[in-house]
Amino acid sequence: MYIDFHTHKPLYSAESNILEVISVHNTVKYENEYFTVGHHPWWTGQALSEVDLQNMETLLANKYCLGIGECGLDKLKGATKEIQEEVFYQQIMLANKNNVPVIVHCVRQYDQALNFKKKYGKTPWVIHGFRRNQHLAKSLIDQGIMLSVSPVQQMNESFVEMLRFLPADSYFLETDSEYSLTIIERYQLMATLKNLDLEELKTQMRVNFDGFFGLKF
Q1: Do 149 and 5 meet the contact criterion of CB atoms below 8 Å apart?
Q2: Is the dihedral of CA 187, 190, 192, 194 positive or negative?
Q3: Is the pLDDT of residue 32 over 90?
Q4: Spacing of C-alpha 157 from chain mean position
Q5: CB atoms within 10 A of CB 199
Q6: What whole-number distance in Å separates Cα of residue 180 and Cα of residue 175?
Q7: Nearest-CA neighbor of 25 among 46, 47, 41?
Q8: Integer angstrom CA distances of residue 28 from 9, 33, 44, 59, 103
Q9: Comparing C-alpha atoms, which of 210, 149, 203, 202 is closest to residue 178?
Q10: How many domains, in total, are found in the chain?
């Protein structure tokens, strides 16, 4: 099975060999699809209310809801730093309460994200859409944070070096909202980059997926 770890709309759900995890904001648009729920820093302008948190908790009780996200910190876009940090904190606490993983959006706020993980994070974390260098990747992995990546046809040397470095048990593959390649094509690219048999890569991604989501999946 191919796993698209993080996407924003189902593209392949009719295909039995592809499992997609849909990232939704605060409502479920699709039935019988695995999803995560989170308040994204781009679209959340104030701290979450008790109603917001209760709605999220209700969705977390859905058997198809695997965790919280995407949520996090973005230096370039979205609400103020203070609001982003408060909303991120609220969702981390909700993940801890419900013992579910967190899918993190992070743009130029990696030091602060690491601080939040060290102080508050009690469940598995992954930073999705990771495109930075090997040094930062290692720093995050060393702190127990996994990475979700999306290989494309044209990649700079730093990105390729980072992808080749990633330990087998540290990462996932995704499309996010960049649909120039299918998830199958991204698997093929990654297998070539890492000199892996495609079936071996698929098996490793399933092992990582099962370990990350645990009993919830």
Answers
A1: no
A2: negative
A3: no
A4: 23
A5: 9
A6: 9
A7: 41
A8: 11, 9, 17, 8, 17
A9: 149
A10: 1
- The 10 Å Cβ neighbour count of residue 212 is 22
pLDDT number for residue 28: 82
161-207 pLDDT, tens per residue? 999 999 999 999 999 988 889 999 999 999 999 999 999 999 999 99
Q: The tokens of 107 are what?
A: 């743009």
Distance from C-alpha of 149 to C-alpha of 66, rounded to nearest angstrom? 19
Token pair 């990546």 is found at 149
Q: Which tokens go with 85?
A: 């940090």
> Is residue 7 very low, low, confident or very high in pLDDT (cuts 50, 70, 90)?
very high
pLDDT tens, residue by residue, 42-82: 999 999 999 999 999 999 999 999 999 999 999 999 999 99
- List helix spans (H) across the chain: 50-60, 81-98, 110-120, 134-142, 157-165, 183-193, 198-213
Distance CA 217, CA 214 (A): 6
Q: Which domain holds residue 141?
A: 2-216
Query: What is the rounded distance in angstroms from the CA atom of residue 25 to the CA atom of residue 36?
Result: 9
Token code pair at residue 190:
């990654």
Q: Which two tokens stand for residue 154?
A: 């044209």
Return the CATH number at 92.
3.20.20.140
Beginning with the edge strand found earlier in the chain, give each strand of the sheet holding 145-149 in spatial order: 2-7, 18-24, 35-37, 65-74, 102-107, 125-127, 145-149, 171-173
**DSSP 8-class letter at 217:** -
Q: Is the pTM of this model over 0.70?
A: yes
